[in-house]
Design brief:
The chain has helices at residues 36-41, 55-66, 96-100, 118-127, 176-187, 213-226, 230-235, 253-260, 302-307, and strands at residues 15-17, 43-49, 71-73, 82-89, 104-112, 130-134, 147-160, 163-170, 191-201, 204-205, 210-211, 237-238, 248-251, 265-266, 270-274, 282-286, 292-297, 312-314, 318-319. It has 9 helices and 19 strands. The chain is an alpha+beta fold. Strands 2, 3, 4, 5, 6, 7, 8, 9, 10, 11 and 12 form an 11-stranded mixed β-sheet that branches. A 6-stranded mixed β-sheet has the order 1-15-13-16-17-19. A hairpin with a 2-residue loop joins strand 7 and strand 8.
Length: 334
């Protein structure tokens, strides 16, 4: 049986080859080959946020531990919520936006105000799967306007008396506290969110890449005091890991510098494209060495990109690779 509990970014894509080319080893650098300083400046941490501090405080501690000037988190978690908090470091903070719109998964403990049969709970979880309307709570920091959000899946994990443990995969910006409240109204019992943990955010998971602040501190000290890079390279991931949920376009060396200067991606520059891209979808552009060049929006579908001889196939909304990393393969207009 295929796993139905998938976020949109987890749907498998095929790599379609448009053209072939070689890459010049004199230019650019594979993410794993970056010096430790470059690696940290273009890094992302899959952090396990503890209950208590705000997401902003946790990000500030990461900056202090790693002695960095810049760091940014993606998808704020309330102080009492635990779990996945991706933190982009240094230059990688430019890629935070690519994660903000990615789907999320949570495990939630909901407290019903009256016990109800299991079939009713299963029924209400099914009823709230799909497109729902939400109005942020009075406590929320955002404008209180009714908006639609998609619940991709809900799975009942356990029931004990009035406590209901369930897993939910949802669109970014879904309020789980409000979801519990609304399901309580639908059940006629009332309900509230008791505990919440984020278990997925875009490409990040509760797996062996997830670390605590203590792990990070230990890894940094091991590098600083014993010149052992291994733990810090394990604790920090290349920023490209934070873009791996986006459909990917791989480009020729000769196209890289134009994109680094903010130009749109033209059809002749594309070597491979992933399947399933629709116009307007967010896409990430990579070099043949696996470096993130930029991300933007597709102007053509996958099949159109594959066939196109001319035209812009994707916009460049955020540049991630420094201009001049690759030689100019384009001529500026007079």
């Amino acid at each position: 049986m295929p796993d139905m509990n998938l976020l949109p970014s987890e749907i498998k894509r095929e790599t379609l080859v448009k053209s072939e080319d070689t890459t010049d080893e004199k230019f650019g650098k594979r993410p794993a080959e970056r010096t430790i300083q470059e690696y940290m400046q273009k890094g992302v941490i899959n952090l396990d946020k503890p209950a208590g501090p705000t997401s902003h405080e946790v990000t500030s501690w990461v900056k202090k531990i790693l002695e960095l000037e810049k760091a940014g988190h993606s998808g704020t978690l309330d102080p009492n919520v635990t779990g996945l908090l991706p933190i982009m470091l240094g230059e990688a903070t430019k890629a935070v936006d690519a994660l903000l719109t990615a789907g999320k998964e949570y495990v939630c403990l909901m407290k019903l105000h009256t016990e109800v049969p299991e079939r009713m709970i299963k029924s209400v979880l099914a009823e709230f799967t799909g497109e729902i309307y939400q109005k942020p709570s009075l406590k929320s920091a955002v404008k209180r306007e009714t908006r639609t959000r998609t619940i991709y899946y809900m799975e009942l994990l356990e029931i004990e008396d009035k406590s209901v443990l369930f897993k939910v995969g949802c669109e970014a910006g879904t309020y789980i506290r409000k979801l519990c409240h609304d399901m309580g109204l639908a059940l006629g019992t009332g309900a509230h969110m008791q505990e919440l943990r984020r278990t997925k955010s875009g490409p990040f998971r509760e797996d062996d890449t997830m670390i605590t602040l203590h792990d990070l501190k230990d890894a940094y000290i091991e590098w600083k005091e014993n010149n052992n890079e291994e733990p810090i390279r394990k604790a920090i991931l290349p920023m490209e890991a934070g873009l791996s949920h986006l459909p990917k376009l791989v480009i020729r060396d000769s196209a890289v510098d134009a994109i680094s200067h903010g130009a749109g991606l033209a059809a002749p520059g594309v070597l491979t494209v992933e399947s399933g891209i629709e116009r307007g979808d967010p896409v990430a552009v990579f070099t043949q060495k696996g470096e993130a060049v930029s991300f933007g929006l597709a102007k053509m579908k996958s099949v159109e990109i594959l066939k196109a001889a001319t035209g812009i196939v994707a916009t460049t909304d955020r540049v991630l690779l420094e201009p001049g990393t690759y030689p100019k393969g384009w001529k500026a207009k007079e």
